[in-house]
Design brief:
This protein has 317 residues and is an all-alpha fold. Helix content is 72%, strand content 1%. It contains 13 helices and 2 strands, in the order αββαααααααααααα. The protein has helices at 2-16, 36-53, 60-78, 83-99, 113-134, 140-157, 163-183, 193-212, 216-221, 224-239, 252-258, 263-287, 290-312; strands at residues 18-19, 31-32. It has a two-stranded antiparallel sheet with strand order 1-2. It is globular, with a radius of gyration of 19 Å. The relative contact order is 0.14.
């Protein structure tokens, strides 16, 4: 479904949603954007149909928030929205998902519920945006989302994730696989904000469900590369007193391509790293040991640091 919608919508996107290269772009020719419409449509249709067949319920707040944040992204793809407007609408969508969750869903029970939910909303807003920031290279989002959602499916089969989250993660994985052939270098179409923002929301919710099911270490390990690249880059830009909310080419993966890495090599290393992180996340869940969990977290941090270091160093000619 994702592949079919992407293929049929390309001429329309070519006409109305063309991403033209600029100083911060990784592409060199005008390329249509907005294929996120296909990915999100396929994800929601399949997940909801599957849930209805299995007599399960995907949270209505999540569905509505995903549609709204996709519309925000689509508007931003067509006519750039002011930063404050984007943030307010994103906060409303993330807040709707978090504050409608059952009160029994906790990560740190020692904290007051309102404080914990408030912190989760802030983290959710950042996660939605960092997925958007990291979607700056052909196949980058697929190299992140496919391993993470596949690991979530496996964890669900092991009984460590709610079935609605498993359905959403699996549908998102399939939708990204359908989109990937159109986004391989040189990309024929981009996701656009209409795809990256709701993907961040859906993926963030699945990871939050994992944390609510008593597996916060696994929920942290799975997106560790995205979290590290985007967060370190953000703090570096703030320290340099740059306009951190504006587009740039400071991410580690962007610096890698500027330093001589080919796009397939960057994507290959990110994909391989995500497979390692997925394996470590599954180990923490199956071991059920604090010692093993700490070792896995340390190993994950080292693996991410090694890749970031490689990306930040010029490639030998």
């Amino acid at each position: 479904m994702s592949a079919l919608i992407t293929w049929t919508s390309r001429p329309l996107l070519q006409r109305y949603a063309l991403a033209r290269p600029n100083a911060r772009s990784s592409h060199r020719i005008p390329t249509p954007q907005g294929a996120g419409i296909a990915v999100i449509s396929a994800t929601l249709v399949v997940a909801l149909a599957w849930a209805a067949w299995a007599n399960l319920a995907v949270p209505p707040a999540l569905v509505m928030a995903t549609i709204v944040i996709a519309l925000v992204g689509f508007a931003d793809d067509i006519v750039s929205l002011p930063v404050l407007v984007r943030l307010v609408l994103q906060a409303a969508c993330v807040g709707a998902v978090v504050f409608t969750a059952p009160e029994t869903a906790r990560i740190v029970p020692a904290l007051p519920l309102a404080l914990e939910r408030g912190l989760i909303v802030l983290a959710g807003i950042w996660f939605v945006n960092l997925v958007n920031f990291m979607d700056g290279l052909d196949l980058m989002t697929a190299a992140e989302v496919v391993p993470v959602t596949a690991a979530l499916l496996l964890l669900g089969l092991l009984g460590e994730l709610s079935w609605p989250a498993v359905l959403v993660a699996t549908a998102l994985c399939g939708a990204m696989l359908g989109f990937a052939p159109f986004n391989k270098p040189v990309a024929k179409v981009f996701l656009g904000d209409v795809g990256s923002l709701p993907i961040g929301l859906l993926l963030g919710w699945c990871l939050l469900e994992l944390a609510w099911h008593g597996q916060p270490a696994a929920a942290l390990l799975l997106p560790a590369y995205y979290l590290a690249d985007a967060t370190i880059t953000l703090f570096r830009r703030i320290a340099r007193r740059e306009q951190f909310w504006s587009a740039h080419r400071s991410h580690f993966y962007q610096r890698a391509t500027d330093s001589g890495f080919t796009i397939p090599r960057v994507i290959g290393e990110v994909f391989a790293l995500n497979l390692v992180l997925a394996g470590l996340a599954i180990v923490t869940v199956r071991a059920g040991s604090m010692t093993v969990t700490l070792i896995a977290l340390l190993a994950g941090a080292i693996a991410v640091a090694l890749v970031l270091r490689r990306f930040s160093r010029p490639q030998a000619s």
